[in-house]
Design a protein that fits this description.
The protein has nine helices and nine strands. With 235 residues, it is α/β, with parallel strands linked by helices. The strands form two sheets. The chain has a six-stranded mixed beta sheet with strand order 5-6-7-3-8-9, with helices on both faces. β8 and β9 form a beta hairpin. It is globular.
Length: 235
């Protein structure tokens, strides 16, 4: 069996002396589209903050294959109201994703600019390049942030509920875009999702957590499981 791209073993994660997640173990292969699902407060966002290197586990390990490091991970957190009003142009926001790999270079290279233009075009926002990010709709802002994440990494994207607050049509569109990114570029996707139906439609693996692992495996198996059917309201 191939060595996992990311391997999490016996993770215990918490804040101060309070354990939020315990004994979390799962593997991610290159090209996977993993959706992390579970009830509100189950620890989903806390888990991916650990994967993104924003939080240290209390114990356990997160191991990366030799081909990647945390520098190769693009992270798209949940948006705050302040971030939605960020006073910058679309091009500036997208370009800022290149800083993840720029080391100590204090300016954008021509390659950075070409990459940003290519990703804006791919996500259908090139015509918005000079528009203010704060004036865009929620769906347009998420496209911008996805383009920024793609500038940050072409290997792994971690997305924390990227469709929160969007209407069903826009939600479906964003899931389709993320699915195409996964399939076209073979970029590994790790996404927290509150929309289990869309998660099941697009992902190839599901991790269901409720303070510990309730299910980890193929999406097809999850859909047939008692837990999956119950969580999707089909039990």
């Amino acid at each position: 069996m191939k060595k996992p791209l990311i391997s999490c073993k016996n993770l215990f994660i918490g804040y101060e002396n309070i354990t939020v997640l315990e004994d979390i173990s799962f593997d991610i292969q290159r090209g996977d589209y993993l959706c992390i699902v579970g009830e509100n407060g189950a620890g989903k966002s806390t888990l991916i903050k650990c994967l993104a290197g924003l939080k240290k586990p209390m114990s356990g390990s997160i191991e990366f294959a030799d081909s990647i490091s945390r520098r190769d991970i693009g992270y798209l957190p949940q948006q705050t109201a302040i971030q939605r009003d960020f006073p910058a142009s679309v091009r500036e926001v997208v370009l800022s994703g290149c800083l993840n790999n720029s080391r100590f270079i204090p300016f954008y290279t021509s390659a950075d600019k070409a990459k940003a233009e290519a990703h804006m075009k791919e996500l259908g926002i090139e015509q918005l390049a000079n528009h203010s990010y704060s004036e865009l709709s929620g769906g347009q802002q998420q496209r911008v942030l996805l383009a920024r994440a793609l500038c940050s990494s072409n290997k792994v994207l971690i997305l924390d509920e990227p469709v929160t607050g969007l209407d069903p049509l826009v939600t479906s569109d964003i899931y389709s875009i993320i699915g195409n990114i996964n399939q076209k570029h073979r970029i590994t996707i790790i996404m927290v999702s509150h929309d289990v139906d869309m998660a099941v439609k697009w992902s190839n693996k599901i991790l269901h957590v409720k303070h510990t692992v309730q299910f980890f495996g193929k999406t097809t198996d999850y859909s047939k499981s008692t837990l999956g059917k119950s969580f999707m309201g089909r039990g």
